[in-house]
Write a structure and sequence with these properties.
This protein is 67% helix and 0% strand. The protein is built from 3 helices and no strands. It is globular and about 40 Å long. The mean pLDDT is 91.
Length: 76
Amino acid sequence: MTQDEKWMARYEEVVRFIEANHRNPSKHRIEEHNMLNWLKASRKLINAGKMKPERVKMFEKLLALTEQYRRKNQYE
């Protein structure tokens, strides 16, 4: 599996999680740590200017999706 395939698999996993659960990955749930760490590492790459341009466009769409569910109360 190439790096691009791994990145796409992780991207799809995070998008599916957010759409299914209507919330972002939590730092308090161990099973969601990999997704949260991937999001944080990808943000750092964008801020450093080291992410590939085609990935940046896709990741910006994902960030827009995460903003919709930012600080969502789990009991709503």
